[in-house]
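Predict fold of L-aspartate oxidase; 89 aa.
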Amino acid sequence: SDYHPDLELAHRDIVSRAITDRMLKTSHSCVYLDLTHLEKSLVKERFPNISKVCASFGLDLSKDQIPVRPGAHYMIGGVKTDLHAQTSV
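Predicted 3D structure, encoded as tokens:
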């Protein structure tokens, strides 16, 4: 496999990079989450919030492939401070 041994269970930043890599390699604007192999009741039980969000867009998490794009999970940067948390801003 081209990806981390933990696949979709890897850390978010690793999964985000893998999604970005796949999108670049395929020239697609997203990848797809496919939970169709799981029982509908399990999907609703395990993922109640995202199931509701998907439903609001006419998507059924247990039947449809859900478009996924990487998101920013970390704030990089900020305001430089000294040892007393003072800035020049």
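The helical segments are 12-26, 40-46, 48-56.
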